[in-house]
Structures are given as structure tokens and as C-alpha cells.
Design a protein that fits this description.
The strands form 2 sheets. This protein has a 7-stranded antiparallel sheet. A two-stranded antiparallel sheet has the order 7-8. It has 13 helices and 9 strands. 47% of the residues lie in helices and 13% in strands. It is of the alpha+beta class and 399 residues long.
């Protein structure tokens, strides 16, 4: 059975290669059939975090020559040298891939994901120009590009084909924009998964809070499909018709059950507050070591994602106000440098608490109890203000 699968897989690859060669030959000779059609393919969200936002691709189909290929800008090579370091540092190149349309449909169907097909309303000459553009992009020296989640991905690349090849700007037909930031647009897809939403909000910096205009919203495949259906292109509707070619069997955006980060953080704040008033120095020292180490390392991560990577969306992260590396100095509170670190960390955290609503970056709600917890432990280490409270509580006990 494995050999049969391998033979079928090899045959499909050769079919794709043959189709691409035929397309290249016909477009080079300007003899691409006038019946050739281009489609925008939009795939619904998947199970994995990286697929929660859906996917976009272009299908080129010539019924005259029976060539049928999907051009896909969302391909990366796991065999790339130093794959994970490059991925973390934002230096991983994605590439334009091409595959047989039936293979593409089967792959998404097997994941229970919907594939919507929208026919682009282009003239034969415009179609030839787009196919020529794609084939030129597919050449080995051109197919790689530096991926950026917001500004250069599988969806924006398709938008850019029309703008670059025909030297036009895609303009909104609406009079009132959505006025949502990139972060808010992401939240529409990731909010059902509170822990993933928490992690993404922590790692994204100020650039994610820019307002996304009509063109910017097209970094999301669903918005690309919806906006293509709205706009005029060269005096005509860009989308001629649409239909579902692969039905959705699984809703991968179904909300996950369980406790939320905000709930856990508020519980932690209450517990730490009680422990601060009732426990001795040793237990508090263990708590402080755990929280100062954890938050300090998180601050180091935020600085690395800002200064040590090419991920533009992780720059200028205001979470560094409360989660700063200065908390690591709190591990040595009896020294001058330790107290200096505690002072800076505590003051910055208090600023976060007091100015939460005015910080230009949208912080996650779970940050409030975390910041209050750190402020509590920071001020207690600096001023020992809980000691008089402990004595008063002890004095109230019956003798």
C-alpha cells in the first residue's frame, strides 16, 4: 500500500511539473488559451496555531490543455539549515510553491477545512500577465521571500500581484473603515483560545496596535476574499462568482473550555496577598524568587524579540514596563544593585497599573493582576510594609 501511495504521489508531482512547464511554454509564446481561468482560493482556519487565520492561494486552470495548478505562497522548507533558530529570529524564508489542484483540495479536505473558490474577472490578456508573473515568481531565484505575519504573507502576496503587475492601488468602496488594529483583527480568530491569545498579546509589541486600513486588512485570508468581492478592478467587479469546492467538516475555531489566564492571575494575586500577610520570611522568599525569576526572564525574552529578531510585530513591547529584566536583580534584595533593580521594576509596574488604560499598546487583561502582584511584592521588599499589618493581625488573636 505504501508503494502505491508513493507512486501516486510521484505521479501527481510530475503532473504538476508538466502543467507548470506547459503554462510557461504557452505564456512565453503568448498562446495561453483564452479560456484560462484564475481563482482566489480561501481556506478556513485549521487546528494548529499557525493555521488559525486561514490560508490563501491562486488556482490557474486551462480547460483547453487540462492544466490545473495551485500557486501557494505559504510554503516553507523544514530541511532549511538552522530551521528553528531562523524561525525564532524571523529570518526564515517562505517560498512560492506549486501543486496539483486535486492534491491541494484533498489536503485541506482531510483536515476538515473549507476551501472557497472565487473566479477572478480578468480578460485573457490580464490572465496571461498574472500567470506570467506567477511563473516568474516561481523560478528558483525568485520564489523565496522573507515572511512577515502582518505585511508579507500568503494573502498579501496575492493582493500585491494585482497592484504591482497592473500598477494600481486597491481602494475601498466603503465610506467608513472598520478602524480595527492588527491586534484586534488577530483577536477575532484567536480569542476563542484564551491561553494562545494571552501568549500572543504578550509577545506582540506596539506595531500590532496600528490601525489596519482596507489594504492592510487583507493580510487575513478571509478579509482578502471579502475585499476582493467588493472592489472594482479596471472598471469591473474583480470577482465574477464564487462557490465552495471543499465543504467544512470541522470548526477549528470552536472555543476551548477551561480556566482563563485572567482568572488564574487574579487567584494568584489573592493567594500571594494572603501569604504576604500570614507567612514568614522563608516562604515569601521562595515566592519572590519564583515570580521575580519568571517575570525577569520574560522581560529578557521581550527584549530579545525586539532587538534580536526581524519580527517587526514584536518591536517596542510595552509589556516591558511591568515584565522587565530588572526583576532579576530582586533575587539579591539585600544588595544595593538588588534594591535598585527592585525600585525600577516596582515603579515601572506601578506606572503600568495606574496608566493601564492610557498605554498606547493594548495589554492583555491578565496583566492587571500580575502587575498588582509584582507591585505588592516589590513594595514589601523595599519598605516591609506588611510587617506592621502582620503584628496587628497577630494582636487581634484571642490570648
Amino acid at each position: 500500500m505504501c508503494r502505491i501511495d508513493q507512486v501516486i504521489s510521484t505521479m501527481k508531482k510530475w503532473i504538476t511539473v508538466f502543467s507548470l512547464l506547459l503554462f510557461a511554454h504557452l505564456t512565453r509564446g503568448q498562446r495561453l488559451s483564452d479560456s484560462t481561468q484564475l481563482f482566489l482560493l480561501t481556506c478556513s482556519p485549521g487546528a494548529e496555531l499557525f493555521s488559525k487565520f486561514g490560508h490563501s492561494a491562486i488556482r490557474a486552470y486551462d480547460p483547453t490543455t487540462a492544466t490545473d495548478v495551485v500557486f501557494n505562497y505559504g510554503v516553507f522548507n523544514f530541511n532549511t539549515p538552522n530551521f528553528y533558530p531562523k524561525f525564532i529570529r524571523g529570518q526564515l524564508d517562505y517560498m512560492l510553491g506549486a501543486e496539483n489542484t486535486d492534491t491541494f483540495f484533498r489536503a485541506y479536505g482531510s483536515e476538515g477545512r473549507e476551501v472557497k473558490q472565487q473566479k477572478l474577472n480578468l480578460t485573457p490578456n490580464q490572465t496571461r500577465r498574472v500567470v506570467r508573473f506567477l511563473l516568474k515568481n516561481y523560478e528558483p531565484e525568485n520564489r523565496y521571500y522573507r515572511y512577515d505575519f502582518f505585511f508579507d504573507n500568503c494573502a498579501t502576496r496575492i493582493r500585491d500581484i494585482l497592484e504591482v503587475e497592473f500598477d494600481i492601488g486597491l481602494v475601498s468602496p466603503m465610506t467608513t473603515p472598520n478602524n480595527l488594529s492588527y491586534r484586534q483583527l488577530v483577536d477575532q480568530y484567536i480569542a476563542p483560545f484564551p491561553w494562545a491569545d494571552f501568549g500572543i498579546d504578550l509577545i506582540l509589541g506596539l506595531p500590532a496596535d496600528q490601525k489596519a486600513d482596507f489594504r492592510g486588512e487583507m493580510f487575513l485570508p478571509e478579509y482578502l476574499a471579502n475585499h476582493f468581492a467588493e472592489i472594482q478592478f479596471m472598471g469591473n467587479n474583480l470577482i465574477e462568482n464564487e462557490r465552495i469546492v471543499v465543504p467544512q467538516r470541522i470548526d477549528h475555531l470552536k472555543p476551548s473550555e477551561g480556566v482563563t489566564p485572567a482568572f488564574i492571575c487574579w487567584i494568584l494575586l489573592i493567594l500571594v496577598s494572603v501569604v504576604s500577610l500570614w507567612s514568614g520570611h522563608k516562604i515569601l522568599r521562595i515566592l519572590d524568587t519564583f515570580f521575580f525569576l519568571l517575570i525577569g526572564l520574560a522581560g529578557c525574552l521581550f527584549i530579545f524579540m525586539w532587538l534580536g529578531t526581524e519580527h517587526k510585530a514584536t518591536w517596542q513591547n510595552f509589556n516591558l514596563l511591568w515584565a522587565s529584566p530588572f526583576w532579576l536583580l530582586g533575587l539579591i534584595p539585600t544588595t544595593k544593585i538588588g534594591r535598585l533593580g527592585l525600585t525600577i521594576g516596582t515603579v515601572a509596574t506601578l506606572i503600568t497599573c495606574l496608566g493601564f488604560a492610557f498605554i498606547p499598546q493594548q495589554l492583555h487583561p491578565a496583566v492587571i493582576p500580575l502587575a498588582l502582584l509584582l507591585a505588592l511584592r516589590g513594595t514589601d521588599n523595599l519598605f516591609n510594609w506588611t510587617i506592621p499589618l502582620k503584628k496587628r493581625i497577630l494582636s487581634l488573636r484571642p490570648q
